[in-house]
Specification:
This protein is an all-alpha fold. The chain is built from 4 helices and no strands. Helix 1 packs antiparallel against helix 2, helix 1 packs parallel to helix 4 and helix 2 packs antiparallel against helix 4. The longest helix is centred in the middle third of the chain and has 32 residues. The chain is elongated and about 50 Å long. The chain starts with a helix and ends in a 15-residue tail after the last helix.
Length: 110
Amino acid sequence: MGVVGFMAGTVAGQLAGAWVYWRVRGNTQGPSTSEHDAAVTNREFDAAWAAGFVTAVVATGVYTALGVHTWLLGRDASWGLSAFLGLCMGICQGMLFRGRPLFPPRGRAA
């Protein structure tokens, strides 16, 4: 069940994080002014950390519930390993995979 849990948690976390990213980021197209650029940068930062947080929470929940920690280290493994993997997935979504695997909503910048 651990391999299935890892795949399910990863996919669910990535999709949830990508959805939150696009909801928080919103429409970033518009005139190129310094005030506008600062607002876009702030929205991008907020969207990235929100996506990472949601991904970490969702992935950790699925990993723990489906026993990914026992798949990796055996029956006596702590669920903390699943939490660590979920945190790593959240960092990846927040820093590396922003907005992926979902496409940007129509009418919004990529």
